[in-house]
Write a structure and sequence with these properties.
This protein has 222 residues and is mainly α. It has helices at 2-14, 19-32, 37-48, 52-57, 66-72, 75-81, 92-99, 102-110, 128-133, 139-154, 169-175, 182-185, 202-205, 211-221; strands at residues 119-121, 124-126. It is globular, with a radius of gyration of 19 Å. The chain starts with a helix and ends with a helix.
């Protein structure tokens, strides 16, 4: 049931849907488990451990916009909420970055969200930059992720940070053949020779021969 509700939440949030749309999904799923909307909604929120800020960001509640909600908080409350994780170790900023919500990402950062904090996924611990680079390749979604990457770079996140397998964001870009990350590729500190824990190079992971040379050539030609 929880995986079904997770899928409903992601679908609603990614499509820009409302709390009412998510509620309808919950109601339909509740029928399968002989539960009322109130019962299934309460159980899900308790299990996932969403703070009120999570709920505003993810449109579970539609009472107020993200910026208005954050603006309404007292300083002590804001400091307590802004980096609070859900039951899976995900902060509101983690959700915003993984969905490619550039506006939400910037708003959360403006109010003190930590861009350097590791994010928890089902594959282990990664940085927010890993998540943004690994965003969907779908054309109509890609622009938001590019904006999020640029926002994170402006916050001076570690471009060479390694995940639990020794992958950097550059390894992810290479493995997917992503060439449109000019601002990342032009970072002076970016290490093009770094190897994964399995001793895989950037070029070895790429489906494009000599990924490094092609990417750098595109930067200098633009």
């Amino acid at each position: 049931m929880e995986s079904m509700l997770d899928s409903a939440l992601v679908h609603t949030a990614m499509s820009g849907g409302s709390a009412l749309e998510f509620g309808k999904f919950c109601e339909d799923i509740g029928v399968l488990f002989n539960m009322t909307l109130s019962e299934i909604g309460m159980q899900y929120l308790n299990t996932r451990g969403f703070s009120e800020l999570h709920q505003v960001l993810l449109r579970i509640t539609h009472k107020v916009s993200l910026s208005d909600y954050l603006r309404s908080l007292e300083r002590d409350t804001l400091d307590n909420f802004i980096n609070r994780t859900d039951s899976r170790g995900r902060t509101p900023l983690t959700w915003a970055v993984e969905f490619g919500w550039s506006d939400g990402t910037q708003i959360l950062l403006d109010y003190g969200a930590d861009p350097h904090r590791a994010a928890t996924t089902n594959r282990g611990s990664v940085t927010l930059l890993h998540l943004a680079v690994a965003g969907p390749r779908s054309q109509f979604l890609r622009a938001g992720f590019l904006e999020v990457i640029d926002i994170l770079l402006q916050m001076e996140v570690d471009v060479n940070a390694r995940d639990h397998e020794g992958w950097t964001p550059l390894h992810i870009a290479a493995s997917w053949g992503i060439f449109d990350l000019r601002n990342l590729f032009s970072q002076p500190a970016l290490d093009w020779s770094v190897l994964t824990n399995d001793n895989m190079s950037v070029d070895a992971l790429s489906p494009i021969e000599q990924f490094s040379n092609v990417a750098l050539a595109r930067i200098y030609q633009s």
